[in-house]
Amino acid sequence: MRGKLVVRLELVDGTNETFLLPVRNNSEMIEKIRFRELFQSNYLTFSTEDDVLIFPVCSVRSMKISKHSIYGLIEDLDAILPVSTFKNVSRI
């Protein structure tokens, strides 16, 4: 897996934040551990060129992680999601 994921946070105050999240070229197991830590954390932390942004999870209404990175479709993103994730669903 390589490239950058588009991550969009919708916060409870109605504001939105969008980030390009670099996907490291590590093994699938390392990526699974990173995502597991993300979903179990009380804070989402993003380090940008100029700032460190820390969002308490309780202030995040929703988070959208796009499989369509700026470098094309990231096929194996499903492999690193939590076991409880419903996969291959359709939005209607």
Strand elements, count? 7
> Strand order within the widest sheet?
2-1-5
CATH class descriptor: Mainly Beta
The whole-angstrom Rg is 14 Å
| CATH-defined architecture | Roll
For the sheet with most strands, the description reads:
3 strands, antiparallel
- What is the H/E string? EEHEEEEE
Helix content: 10-25%
The number of helices is 1
Number of domains: 1
Amino- and carboxy-terminal Cα gap: 28 Å
Low-confidence stretches: none
Mean pLDDT: 77
Assess the beta-strand content as a share of residues: 35-45%
Structural class from helices and strands?
Answer: mainly beta
In short:
With 92 residues, the protein is mainly beta. It is 14% helix and 41% strand. The protein has one helix at residues 28-40, and strands at 3-11, 16-23, 43-47, 52-56, 60-66, 68-69, 72-73.
Would you give an account of this structure?
- With 92 residues, this protein is mainly β.
- The chain has a single domain (3-80), classed as SH3 type barrels (Roll).
- It has one helix and seven strands, in the order ββαβββββ.
- The strands form three sheets. It has a three-stranded antiparallel beta sheet with strand order 2-1-5, with no helix packed on it. The chain has a two-stranded antiparallel ribbon with strand order 3-4. A two-stranded antiparallel ribbon has the order 6-7.
- The longest helix has 13 residues, at 28-40.
- The protein starts with a strand and ends in a 19-residue tail after the last strand.
Any key phrases for this structure?
92 residues, mainly beta, SH3 type barrels, 41% strand
